[in-house]
Structure formats: structure tokens, C-alpha cells
Amino acid sequence: MAKLQHVIEAQQFTLPLIHELFQTADQMEKILERGGTLDYQNKIMASLFYAPSTRTRFSFESAMYRLGGKVISTEQAHLFSSVIGGETLEDTIRVVSNFCDVIVLRHTEVGAAKRASFVSSVPIINAGDGKGGQHPTQALLDLYTIYKELGYIDGLKIAFVGDLEQGRTVRSLAYLLGKFERVMLYFIAPDFLQIREDIQDYLTRHNVWFTLESELNKIISEVDVIYVTRIERERFGDKADIYEETVKNYFIDRETISKMKEKAIIMHPLPRLNEISPDVDSDPRAVYFRQTKNGLLIRMALLTMVL
Ligand code: CP
């Protein structure tokens, strides 16, 4: 098994590593089905979350318990750790890494996980750093979901919809998809929420086809995946009317999905706000809750690879 030192950004994952991760996640599913655990009872995972999380924190903690390991945790590190007294992230990491075998870190600042990796004596896993940073483990579980649901990634046509400017899951997934053959990426958003130039430059440098569009309707019948992200109200300040119009323009309801391919899928990293109508949930193409289950498997697999 390949050994990972840290999990910081999506770009670090090569195609062989991604394939190995998927195979390990498949094995984790079989182990879970048998009700088994692995031999990690002497290992401790610290989850250090400076920003709110439901899925990432619970799935990492569940993954560690399912492996037979132990968890120490602070879910509001900005309130309940020595940071409140002015301790730096670096000092906190130097100390916490003495108490555990791996640290899962969510932070409000872009680049925090990388900074942590420079001073940590144990592996750091980036569980999301800042708005517009990265969320590599989410992107890996997204990619695994696409692979499991559709059976292919090469040749994929995917539409990203919503706040692509700050959406760290979209940014990380774009980096990963750029490693595959003949993928086509459609970034669907108004100008002020469009994907940033750093991702566009990366895709251009790697000869990945992409286009920036503002209307989903134009391409909805062509794509294999619609990947929807949150549009946060606070991004619009006092411009409530523009927020309402933007949400309405990109809202996914039963009429929208009636135009999708029969085998296409709708994904969302969750939590959702007003992006997808709840009556879409029962459509077999809505995979966002299955996506969260895959998060457990991918995070079990990642933990085995870093430990
Ligand atoms: N998708 C995701 O990162 O969800 P949480 O913020 O609940 O962890």
C-alpha cells in the first residue's frame, strides 16, 4: 500500500494513487458489510475543527472508530482551545501532534493545512481550509462517487453550478478531474461567482477542456454529472434581490431534472440551502446522500494510507 505523508491538496494525488485509494475504499465497504474492524486499536486520530462541520468531522471520526482506532476531538477549536488565549496554529499543532498519530484539520484560513504540515510530527489531513481554499478529501469522495455511480471518469462531461468562486470542493474536484482523459468541465455561474483564474490556468496548462457559462439549460441535456454547490446569502450583502434572482436561476427542481440524461447524476457536497428542491431527492439520479456514505469509505481508506 502506498504511504501518504500528508493530505493537503488535490494536486498531490496521482492517477495510480487515486486508483489505489478507490480499491482500498472498496475493501473498506466489504469490511463494513461483514461488521468488521481493522487493527488500529493503538492509533489515535485528533480532529481539530476551527470551523463548523457535520459530514467531514463525523465521517472521519466514524472512520477511525470503524478501523478500531481512537479519537480525540475539539469541534470548535476557535472557542475551546488555547487559540482563544492567542496560541498560534503552529504551536497548537506542535503540541497536539505529540498526543496522536494523525491530525484532521479544518480551518478558516486558506493554506492552514500546509502550514500545519510544516511543523507537525504526524500526518495532517486537510478537512477544508478557508473559503476558496481546498477540500481534497471531499473531492476524492466525489470522484469515487462518480466512479461508482457511472463506472467511468475518462470522457466525463460535468457541469458545476453555484458559487464556484469560493467553493473549495469544486476547486479540489477540478484539480482531480484534470488528471483524467477527455473530461469536459462546464462552469455554470454568474460572472461574480465564476471559477477563479488559478483553476482556469491549471486546466489550460494541462490541456483540459472547459467552458464558462451562465445558463444551465443550454447544456443540461448533454452532461453526465450536475454538481451543485451552495450559494451563501452573506455573499450578497444588502443586495437581497440579486441573491433571490441568482438562487432562482440555478434552482434544481423536477422540471430541471426532466431535461437530464436518464443515466446522469446530481451531486452536492452538502449542506444544501435552497439549491435543490427536496422532491428531487427521491429521483434515483440524486446521489448526494449516497455521496456522504462514500465519504466514510474514502476517509477510512485515507486513514489506512497515512497511518
Ligand atoms: N461537505 C462538507 O464538507 O460538509 P461539512 O461542512 O458538514 O463537513
TrEMBL record:
What is the uppermost EC class here? Answer: transferase
Q: Name one Pfam family in it.
A: OTCace_N
Q: Which UniProt keywords apply?
A: Pyrimidine biosynthesis, Transferase
- The protein's Enzyme Commission number: 2.1.3.2
Q: Which GO terms describe its biological process?
A: 'de novo' pyrimidine nucleobase biosynthetic process; 'de novo' UMP biosynthetic process; amino acid metabolic process
Offer an example of a GO molecular function term for this protein: amino acid binding
The catalysed reaction is: carbamoyl phosphate + L-aspartate = N-carbamoyl-L-aspartate + phosphate + H(+)
Task: Indicate what this protein is called per its UniProt record.
Answer: Aspartate carbamoyltransferase
Source taxonomy: Bacteria, Pseudomonadati, Candidatus Kryptoniota, Candidatus Chryseopegocella
Function according to Swiss-Prot or TrEMBL: Catalyzes the condensation of carbamoyl phosphate and aspartate to form carbamoyl aspartate and inorganic phosphate, the committed step in the de novo pyrimidine nucleotide biosynthesis pathway.
The keyword Cell division is assigned to this record = no
**Where in this chain does the record put each Aspartate/ornithine carbamoyltransferase Asp/Orn-binding domain?**
154-305
Going by the entry's taxonomy, the superkingdom of the source organism is recorded as: Bacteria
UniProt xrefs under NCBIfam families: asp_carb_tr, PRK00856.1
Pathway involvement of the protein, from the record: Pyrimidine metabolism; UMP biosynthesis via de novo pathway; (S)-dihydroorotate from bicarbonate: step 2/3
Q: Where is the Aspartate/ornithine carbamoyltransferase carbamoyl-P binding domain?
A: 5-147
Q: Which family does it belong to?
A: Belongs to the aspartate/ornithine carbamoyltransferase superfamily. ATCase family.
